[in-house]
Amino acid sequence: MRTVFLSNGSLAVLYDENYYMRDVYYPLLGQHHHHSFGGRFKIGIWHDGKFTWLEGIGNKEIRLSGSKAELHAQWDGLEIHMEDTVLIPQPVLARHVSIRGGPGFVRVIFYHDFKLNDYEAGGDTAFYDPSLDAVFHYKGTTWFGIASTNPIYEYTTGRRDLNVVLPPDCEDGVLSKNPIAQGSVASAMSIASPPEFYYFIVAGDNYERVMRMIIELRDRNNVETYFRRSVNYWSNVASEYSDDELASQSIVVLLGHVGTNGSIPASLDTSIIKFNLDTYGYLWPRDAAFAAMALDMAGYYTFTKKFYSLVFKLFGREGFLFQKYNPSGTWGGSTWHPWTARSRKSLNIQEDETATVIYAFWHYFQRTRDYDLLREVYDVITRAANFMTNFRDEKLKLPLESYDLWEERLGVHTYTVASVYAGLLAASNLAKMLGEYESASKWEETAWRFERQLGTTYSIGRGGACFIGLSGLMMVR
What we know:
By secondary structure, this protein is α+β, with helices and mostly antiparallel strands.
């Protein structure tokens, strides 16, 4: 279960019920993950010879409010409070830690479970930089630097597969100060006798860039300013819905899924990987279009414009979209739609994805009158509308076979026909905006033909023939 989602569009993190980071993405949300599947960025507390991980504390409260996550817990006479946010626009996770209460020596231990660049086999390096008093993880052009406004008390790095760092080195309260490790590596660092400090993880594409940001954040005034600015930013973004906590929180979460390049991945929660060895971290055009429409209805057009600008670049010359794409916009996300399904009567696509994107853009255009974007994408809209017009069975007067909404069955489906109907009418309306009345008429007439057929013959597939009438739905097997 994920209880926290924090994102600025280029860096996103998700936490579990113990306030442990479980998913880390940078710079493309959904595509470039840097966490160990099933692993955890754990937080431990050492107090006068006693030690616990946060998972061992039962009476803790986790709250997500806008773009700020909070943890409240009590343990061994200590009041533990943490506040986290992802800064804007810097790719930084910042955490304010406050531990107060009884006497004695306290250490906070942070365990880092990075696996960089989607690659489970290793090849990472972790090291401690004494000149900067920071721990680094890197591979190629992916760098993460971890530091604090307080001095690091102890640190260590080591092979994950040999369990060097976790559990033994962390749980005795003393880190072994191994300065560097390579392969499949983890690291840990501790901050001693706080009572309060900032801890931060900085992402970047090289050492110099991460180093400069760490130096800037070491100035407490800077990190406090950036933290406050980021929380206030998202609070104001959703302020129109401030009287409805669920609505305002949903707006922040939705906007946090809009990547800087406009991609909107279906889900960043990787817990699904245990079921099918894959994730939902892909751009499904239909799913993203529905998210964009919701944001358009809420008035966040400047965010969704990035999505429309990206998605119209994904159409092939034939005029349709495939099942899903990598968040970078490259085609080739994993799929189970076989190429043997391609024939004169079918394609291994979901036609509703193509149609829904066209409908969503009309939905956006009605609210924004964004003629500037319309002129950029209209040629693509023309190809898509012509594809939907031509991809039909002349005898049945319905679309040819493609996969259903749930990606399971090849056939002609109610939802697909309805979405194509809506997509063609949307394309017709957009054509009229540019005076293309011949195209508008052709696409509109095709849409009405599909609508008329909804009352008669319908889905033909392995489940049988489906007939739809005013009295309801009847399956004939």
